[in-house]
Amino acid sequence: MSKPQIHLNRRRFLKAAAQAGAVLALPQVIPGTALGKSGSVAPSERIVLGGIGIGSRGGYDLGCFLHEPDVQFVAVCDVKANRRKAVKEMADTKYGNQDCATYLDMRELLARSDIDAVLIATGPNWHATASILAAKAGKDVYCEKPCTKNIAQSLLLAETFRRTGRVFQAGTQRRSLPNFAYAIELARTGKLGKLHTLYAHPMGLKTISSGWLPPEPEPPKEEVDWDMYLGPAAWRPFNRRLLDGFNFEKGGGMVGAFGGGGCLEWGSHCVDLCQWANNADDTAPVEYEPTGNQLHARYANGVKLILRNDGWLPLGSCPVRFEGETGWVETGDDAEIVASSPALLARRGAKIPGYPADFHIRNFLDCVKTRAQTRANADVACHAHIACHAANISLFLGRKVNYDPKKNEFPGDEEANRLRSEALREPWRL
Amino acid sequence: MMLKSRSLAWCAVLLVAATIAAGQTNAADNQNPKEREAKLIAVLQSDAPPAEKAITCKRLSVYGTSEAVPALAPLLLDKELSSWARIALEVIPGPAADEALRSAMGKAQGRLLVGVINSIAVRHDAQAVNGLVEKLKDKDSDPEVASAAAVALGRIGGQQAAQTLERSLAEVPATIRPAVAEGCILCAERSLAQGKAADAVKLYDTIRRANLPKQKLLEATRGAILARGSDGIPLLVEQLESADKAQVGIGLRTARELPGRDVTEALATELNRLSLDRRPLLLLALADRSDEAVLPVVVMAARGGPKEVRLVALEVLMRLGNVSCVPVLLAAAAENDAQVSQAAMLTLAHLPGAGVDTDLLARLPQATGKTRQVLLQLTGERQMEGALGTIMSSLNEGDAGVRSAAVQALGALGGDKQAVDLVNLLQKTQNPNDRANVEKALAAISGRAGASCVPCLLPLMQNSDPALRTIGLRVLVIAGGPDALAAVKSAFQDKDEAVQDEAARRLSAWPTNWPGDTAAAQALLALAKSDKKMLHQVLGLRGYLEYVRGDKQLNNSAKVTKVNELLPLIQRPEEKRLAISVVGALRTAGALELLTTLASDPAVTEDACSAIVNMSGRGMQGATRDQRQKALQMVVEKSKNDATKKRAEDLLQGVR
Predict the structure, then answer these.
(1) Residue A336 belongs to what domain range?
(2) Are strands A195-200 and A304-307 parallel, antiparallel or unpaired?
């Protein structure tokens, strides 16, 4: 994924959000007293942030966080020495001091009582485990996607954040971008007529990425802590090609050993958007079936969800399309929106291409202060991820599966049910 | 040696498995289940390398039965394969897997033991409770083992587990206590789910009294409130009123969860008692409760009272409100306070419910002043096409605000027919504000309708007033298409010089139709070659260069040729720099040559040198080593910029 380098100011965003519609216009309840006279933020009102696993994507996210005046970044944890050094330099340069602490073990960072929130941008293998550890340690969490490796992790993530009362935001930043929000508002408010089909584009539907590669000499722990890198993933010997946080086990538990799982990487974005469009943030499709190069799913309300790789308008990456009885709309990462009728686009807002995360991160920070629910909170993320995992299971088994979102099981389907979870490597637990 | 080869072969197999489609991978598993399982078991019992055994464990997690357990069990003590074996053992149904894990609890040590206990917890094996209690109570136990046992007891639940955990809370060392508390909370949750609220309350209260990290106390407090039901309201209110931010936070969380109308009512009362800075936070929490009794509370807060709370209430109505909220929202939208008015407008624009449009339309005929203005604005915002007649009749009203709102609404709703009406209106009015509003509306319609509305706009180009012809040019360009382009080209013959200049500016910025409209490129080139006025030449050059940059149908080589052909016409350094910027992005041998030529112009030497260095740094197609070397050498010799020179020297090293 390329790194968008767009930082938009809040004023521009709010204008675009207002134009985009209700879905992005959140109450502004941060008290004015939080701001000092010079516009700087009083220390007592700052959110003290730590970072866990800050590489390429995490570096971009961290840049967005550092852009916000009410954030004080104080510590980084990474299993790779070069990343610890680079992030420390980034933070110390920003603040003109040498205060950013470095850690190899996230549990030490999480034990710091002065840290309010953490940015988790490790490889996906760690996302759920690290998020749950952070919540149990009393931290609010912004976690990159995909946030979980399987259905069981998704449910435990939501359960833990409910129990701990911590704020969680999945890094599905398209939830905070006006073009997606606008298209979704059209779908949710009946402007397309009765909704019947949603299309998501989980690029590389069936690709996979990691396994057990030939052993190589393990580097010193200070340089790369392989054991900590593997974390909850089943053991395998060190191999530098696996040492890529972005790809390692990114498709969920099935990737490590079999295959499948490609739809999780992008599905956590585009399936999530379809869930929102269908007003289905608290559920998931009830049936899934591989069909050629597509996967067809169906919600209990009859709406179809089609995961496909091609057949799209050229609107950039991560396109989604919503079809109703009287109209359709399609949009993607270039922020263009195409609809069945020009009238549907009369109120569309400013174009903000490049899928920046600034607004999503701002939403997280506001919710840390108000304790309100974020746009991609743990319950929302849980169900969107379950839809992706169930799709993966259907793809892996190569057949239709039915899912009961209330009982969170595949009724009478033992093979599918067994794939709902995967043991974590010792000593990790959820 | 043989083993090594076999190991590498299996690694290759796994890699292949990792790159083929999942369905295909699964096809290999479509065989007789018993035979398939027997083969998998045989792998585990062979001297196959760990990689092979690992993937076999994973397959057994889907296809294994209790038959596979004896082959999996020994791997629980293997530090490389224990995690793989547990993947299977955690999900294989039946008592054999439970027995294997319980048995391993007596043999494994350290981290492997922790893993085994964690798997027992996942399987909720009630028969393991005695063994887990031992691990928890064993004073010599590794703290990680004792902690895992405590959490496992919590996951399994039951009276014995709950009593052990409750007692242990006061007895275990501080390092283990958070895990014991976690186990207690899990037990309490299970009790509550089973309808044993009193047991849950007792356990939660015990935790709240213990010496524990704050987060655990907060979790227990939430549980204690939820387990008490309506009786938990005082404890909930205590959190909301606390001086401790974390307690307020857990209170707000719980305020969203604790069900009951009496809870909603208590929170509504609390809304007026809390300090002002907390009221918006509680209002947001109230809004997340699935209780219809919340709406009247929010409407009340939206109607009046402290502004901080009002603004939040107005915005919350966007989500919760319905047609019954229209009066209070309309009143707020008509207020003079800009923030209140804006918040109410935004909510009205998105207020859900089919009856809302009907209600707003019914109010429009009688409405006057600010309210009429608000309603007209809303017809556009909400795409209420049924209001077009009323909007048209409002275009000539005396109230400037109402006129403006009507024009704005027409811009949002209108099509070609309304464009005609707006053009007529524009030709009748002299008021600069009205003209500006109508232009915005025409621009909005033109943007939506595109070339189809050009005929409606063309009358503006025949108007005797040059200001209207100028407006005409601006909206025609937004509509686009060949007729619009022809009108812009004709405007170069306009009798008014300002109109001619505007035509040049619009043509130069003909932005949206690339690469489809090459006719504009020809017009721009003609403008660049014209000798009538320097401003026009400059605008023509700039527009043409932007066309070259943006046209996706031109390949890089064609782009270089076009810029090359344009060079004799470019006199000023500003346009030369633009040319350098266009060429610099092409990264071809021809582009490099062109930049080298441009570098000999002293006015833009540094720009060209910098572009050469950037291009060389990113790599380029078709340039020979000699060409790159020459270009970089030239930069070293000509550039006066130390950084550029240094980069060129560094790159030269690489080329050599």
Answers:
(1) 177-206+260-352+379-418
(2) parallel
Residues of chain A found within 8 Å of residue B223, distances taken between Cβ atoms: 163
> ipTM, 2 decimals?
0.92
Is the pLDDT at A165 greater than 80? The verdict is: yes
Q: Which residues of B touch A235 (CB under 8 A)?
A: 54, 79-84
Residue A348's φ and ψ, nearest 5 degrees, are -65, 145
Of A234, A345, A427, which is closest to B111 when you measure between CB atoms? A427
User: What does the DSSP assignment read for A189-237?
Assistant: TTTTSSEEEEEE--SSTT------PPP-PPPPTTTB-HHHHHTTSPP--
The whole-angstrom distance between B281's CA and the closest CA on chain A is: 6
**pLDDT at residue number B513:** 52
Which of B57, B114, B250 is the closest to A426 by Cβ?
B114
Please answer yes or no on whether A27 and B93 come within 8 Å at the CB atom: no
Q: Is residue A235 part of a domain?
A: no
User: Hey, are the CB atoms on B22 and A260 less than 8 Å from each other?
Assistant: yes
| Domain CATH number, residue A29 | 3.40.50.720
Residue finishing a domain among A174, A196, A218: A174
The residues facing B386 across adjacent strands are: none
The pLDDT of residue A305 is 98
pLDDT confidence of residue B21: 33
For A20, A91, A179, B101, B383, the CA distances from A347, given in Å and listed in that order, are 7, 40, 11, 61, 9
Same domain, A136 and A82: yes
Structure confidence at residue A13 (pLDDT): 57
Does A228 fall in a domain? no
CB-CB contact of B153 with B164 (8 Å):
yes
A90's tokens: 């980034």
pLDDT of residue B76: 98
User: A144 and A280, same structural domain?
Assistant: no
Contacts of residue B51, defined as CB under 8 A and 6 or more positions apart, other chains included, come to A212, A236, B7, B10, B11, B14
The answer to whether the beta carbons of residues A141 and A169 sit under 8 Å apart is yes
In this predicted structure, the answer to whether residue A62 has a pLDDT above a threshold of 60 is: yes
- Which residues in chain B have Cβ-Cβ distances shorter than 8 Å to A342? 448-450
A21 and A43 together in one domain: yes
pLDDT tens across B188-216, in order? 999 999 999 999 999 999 999 999 999 99
| Residue A334 counted as domain residue | yes
Ranges of residues in chain B with a pLDDT under 70 are: 1-30, 511-517, 656
Residue A255: inside a domain: no
pLDDT of residue B383: 86
pLDDT at B2: 36
Contact A371 B319 (CB under 8 A): no
% of chain A at pLDDT higher than 90 = 71
Average pLDDT rounded to a whole number, residues A185-210? 82
For residues A192 and A136, membership in a common domain is answered with no
Residues 431-450 of B with CB under 8 A from A: 444, 448-450
Hey, is A427 helix, strand or coil? coil
Residue of B nearest to A209 (CA): B18
- Distance to chain B for A427, nearest Cα, Å: 5
- CATH classification of the domain holding A403: 3.30.360.10
How many contacts (CB atoms, under 8 Å) link A and B?
223
Q: What is the pLDDT of residue B14?
A: 37
Task: Output the furthest CA–CA distance in chain B (Å, rounded).
Answer: 101
Instruction: Clarify whether residues A409 and A268 are in a common domain.
Output: yes
Q: Which residues contact A260 (CB under 8 A, 6 or more apart)?
A: A206, A208, A251, A254, A392, A395, A396, B22, B25
Q: What mean pLDDT comes out for the span A315-343?
A: 93
- Residue B8 touches partner A, C-beta closer than 8 Å: yes
Which residue of B lies nearest to A291 if distances are taken between CA atoms? B23
Same domain? A157 vs A274: no
pLDDT at B520: 85
Report if residue B82 sits inside a domain: no
Cβ atoms of B387 and B361 closer than 8 Å: yes
How many distinct structural domains can be found in chain A? 2
Instruction: Give the total number of structural domains in chain B.
Output: 1
Q: What is the pLDDT of residues B412-434, one digit of tens each?
A: 888 899 999 999 999 999 999 99
For A107-128, what is the mean pLDDT?
96
Whether B23 and A398 lie within 8 Å, measured CB to CB = yes
Range of the domain at B608: 571-656
